[in-house]
Design a protein that fits this description.
By secondary structure, this protein is mainly α. It folds into two domains: 3-135 and 242-276, Up-down Bundle (Four Helix Bundle (Hemerythrin (Met), subunit A)), CATH 1.20.120; 136-239, no CATH class. Helices cover 63% and strands 8% of the residues. It has helices at residues 3-29, 38-53, 58-80, 86-98, 116-120, 122-133, 137-152, 163-172, 178-183, 212-227, 243-256, 260-276, and strands at residues 159-160, 174-177, 188-190, 192-194, 201-203, 234-239. The strands form two sheets. Strands 1-5-4 form a three-stranded mixed sheet, with no helix packed on it. It has a three-stranded antiparallel sheet with strand order 2-6-3. Helix 3 (58-80) runs antiparallel to helix 4. It is globular.
């Protein structure tokens, strides 16, 4: 086994173990301790310097720096625009430090071969793989809502909104008991909001809370509305995703199997080719 592959194993094991622990905390509390990211950064920085120093060309060194810079900037942008939690951003930044490009030189890894995206940036590959994995959620939500409709008959009782928004609600959330929602405010986000004027409830699908103070104020408002009996027995919610789980699975797929975008593209191209032939 080459030295580069031993280093690659260290990189991969460190990243996956860190992600696994982060996923545990994300599921249990939706809070990931900052100290968890010390290990991948402490191991990653010397290896990042080593990669740059041992690059066999200026172009190779540039790609390493580019991948790290791209992943860091992307994580920061997604975080400050409310699309990422703090742990998710730190996970991508850590991957940029620890594994800017695909680490192994084994001939049989990844299974489908190194894609252009993996060659350019492993953190971006991990992120896109995780994003693709979340696409199964709309199907899960839709199935759950169909079962609700069959059992309870009424899905949008008291909801004042357009047909288009109601269709989006079917694939972005589902109904649960309001009391359960109040007990688990850290795990759900409401899709419906009571209106004080006519008692109807309006829909807000994509509301971002940019800081802890705003989030606390929002939770207090929800509790006040609940005490004032402004919600019904059930409420539309969207679960606050423990995205670290998807990043962990996405990282494993990136290392062992490859880039899911490439797999999907090759599958589609193969199907089209077979149908033509």
């Amino acid at each position: 086994m080459y030295l580069e592959d031993i280093i690659a194993i260290i990189r991969s094991a460190t990243l996956i173990l860190t992600y696994a622990f982060a996923s545990y905390y994300d599921v249990k509390t939706r809070e990931v301790p900052d100290k968890l990211w010390i290990l991948p950064v402490a191991i990653g920085i010397p290896l990042l310097v080593y990669d740059i120093m041992c690059s066999n060309s200026l172009y190779s060194a540039f790609l390493i720096v580019f991948s790290f810079t791209l992943s860091t900037l992307l994580a920061i942008i997604l975080f400050y625009n409310g699309f990422f939690g703090g742990a998710d951003a730190k996970a991508i930044i850590s991957a940029g430090i620890l594994m800017p490009r695909y680490p192994f030189s084994f001939q049989n890894l990844p299974i489908i071969g190194i894609s252009s995206l993996q060659f350019l940036s492993m953190p971006l590959t991990i992120l896109t793989n995780a994003a693709i994995l979340t696409l199964i959620l709309p199907l899960v939500f839709l199935s759950r809502n169909i079962l609700w409709k069959l059992k309870h008959k009424k899905l949008f009782e008291g909801i004042q909104s357009s047909t288009f928004k109601k269709m989006l609600m079917l694939i972005t959330g589902y109904k649960i008991e309001t009391l359960e929602f109040i007990k688990k405010l850290d795990f759900y986000h409401p899709l419906e909001y009571p209106r004080r004027i006519n008692g109807r409830r309006e829909v807000k699908l994509f509301q971002r809370l940019v800081d802890e103070g705003e989030s606390l104020k929002f939770k207090n408002e929800i509790i006040t509305n609940y005490r004032n009996k402004m919600y019904g027995e059930y409420i539309w919610v969207t679960p606050l995703l423990p995205f670290m789980i998807y990043l962990t699975i996405g990282a494993l797929i990136s290392i062992v199997i490859g880039d899911l975008i490439t797999i999907i593209a090759l599958t589609i191209i193969g199907s089209i080719t077979d149908s033509i032939i």
